[in-house]
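Reposting from the mailing list since nobody answered there.

I have sequence plus structure tokens for a pair of proteins and want to know whether others read the tokens the same way I do. The first protein:
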Amino acid sequence: MLAVGVLESAGHTFLLLIAVLHFRAGAIPKALIAAGGSAGLLLSPLAVNLVARWRWPVTLGASRLLWVGAGACGLAAAVNRLEVFVPACMLAMTVGSAIVPLMTQVYQDNYPPEQRGKLYSRTFLLRIVGAMTFSWGGGQFLDWRPAWFPVLLLIFAAAFVVAAIAIGGIPSRPLPDSGSAHPLHVLRYVRSDRVFRQTLIVWMFMGFANLMMLPMRVEYLGNPQHRLGLTAASIGLLTGVIPNLARLIMNPVWGWLFDRMNFFGLRFTLNLGFALGIAAFFTSDSWTGLIVGAVIYGISNAGGDVAWGLWVTKIAPPERVADYMSVHTFFTGIRGVLAPLVGFQLLQHFAPPALGWFSAGLIVAATLWLLPEMRRTAGLRRGQLLTEEVSD
């Protein structure tokens, strides 16, 4: 998980920062880099389908994808050209996120339902420590030797290798083969499971707003056009260290709440936190406002880590958790690819504060959609399947 945390800092901060500060990349290359992880989520049903068809143990399939990411980062480090850097970074982040449904199946198989949130949050602490530590150290390094950015890319390649070896050593079993060669056959669950469908709709609007503004943090802080023009170390502090410190402190709390709290009530609370954090961050040009926004975002993101990664375990049949999760990640990938593109294009016409208010409003609107399901599932608590009382 420490290695995965280092890779998280790559996707959220450093790859985009290198594109902005070293390559002076335009809107499209920056959006493509920002969308790399989402492209992997978009392709995750294909990854799950192939691992199931080839009868690989789940962790073996995940490990082999991570080896591809190591090679892509190594290529980006070796060739100092934007036309190589962008696709290599996209490939690395794509394979890194394509394994998410496979890992959710591992959590389903190994963590007991009544403690799943608690145990997941404990392992996630290591990821947060890795992201927080490297966000600070990497930012300091870039300020000291900006031309040595390939060293960071080699560190990311090494992190992929460590993660591949570690995950490959976890015992796992092959997924049940659905018998369909079409990777999108899993979308049938959207039609057949009403609770699943309703939750995906809410998550689409909320997630689009959040993912549109996530890469905008680096742009807002680092591009002198927006009047801040902070150093790499300061950007790493505000986008990595401070939110991850809040995330580190609150992650166990959210894991405990996930096991005990009504899921829709949990999601309602988290959404409001994301809206408040985005509004505070992008409407401020003072260190106080930026720090407050970063802290609120980190607190909300701590709960989002647990809710996003485990919620399908509450509604999916145990043997189909990877399938359900791949549908969730597929739609996350759609909005994740489109949101940065839309965001960077809107930035050509609107200032970051205006985009911040728009995104916060979109999240609030999506959150209100949850109210009927909150009332409908008010009696459900830990370990219960939402579909027991509310699915058609």
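The second protein, same order (residues first, tokens after):
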Amino acid sequence: MKKILIAGSSAKEYALANKLKSYDCEVTVAPGNERIKDIANCVDIREGNVKELLEYVLENGIDLTVASSSEAIKNDISTLFQANEQLIFAPAKNSADAMLSRSACKKLLYRLHIPTPRFGIFEKSSMAIDYLKNAPMPQVIRTDSDEANTGRLVCTTFSDAKTYTEDLFARGEEKVVLEDYVYGHDFTLYVITDGYQALPITSVANYKFAQDGKGGILTSGTGAFTPDYKISAETEKNIMKQVQNILSFLERRGTPYMGIIGADCVLREDGKFSVLDLKPFLADHDAQAVLNLIDENLITLFEACAVGSFADDFETVKISDSSSVSCVISSRFEQKVIEGLDLVESDITFFPLKKNNYLEYETIEGRNLVLTKTAKTLSRARKQLYEDIEQIKFDGKKYRTDICGQVDNF
């Protein structure tokens, strides 16, 4: 029986552990969270403590490590493990800079002439404010890091943009990225690569605003559906060309990227696309939805990338003909008992919740759960998903009600 270690503690790690446990393997997650303990072993090692993770792998005979956590990638877990001849599916830090830093991402897209919205990168508040004076509104204002739900705002007026930018620098941000807001359909194309060959996994329609109809604050994701029927084969082909351009550049630079890339894009009103961002793994809000559709053995797939046999072993990534819809459930309050979890038939992935003295799960402020329903059609998956959402009850519950809302027969 193979032993697999996952480095991370959020909803995507829960989804990954849930998928891997269906194989004949032993899954351990470091550090995991209270809910992950119900489906996998957890070891109390922070994902950024890569030396201690290596010691654990060596002492416990781990066959494959999957670093889905940005923190682990930032601390260069891949290079350390490869130097010690340990099999790992994750990019090296120097190949993943554009997936971990928004400014590095924007510079790479610009250098390779990949379509992306007009942007500016600033290290001083005064220069950013000068830029904003002549910038079209709305402006998307982001910090340089990839933190999930902090440091991003869409501002529709100069006054709001100026205030928010000044606040970011006042709290110690070293870089701020300003970007023209692009109207259109938000989606992600996920790609897996060994650093040389890249294959598409699936397209995902993204819902990023906190409230229905693109209202409220901009988040990293409040829901999703896959496959995204709005993305044509031609658009996917063109995005794959740009991803291959990125991989070829990284290879020429001597830093080939091995892992999963999420190309966050927007399908503009003119039918063309712009690349907004690059991600170093599946996102929390859509991980279960994507994993439910993959018909390959993930361990075999990840190992092929890690050992260099990917191009020989895979011509495509097999995807089922089903559809998945996901919705993030958040809470306005902390320490409210969550009821109805046992009534839900949808897949549930969990953020780091805790149990009270009565072994009941209690809310944290912000994102708590992701519900995912997979069915033969998008319309059926959506209907069953929202029926399950109604089963879950706690004070302060909030979620979008329009995920996949315009789908009829898909």
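Reply #1 (J.P.):
I read it the same way you do. The chain has a mean pLDDT of 95.
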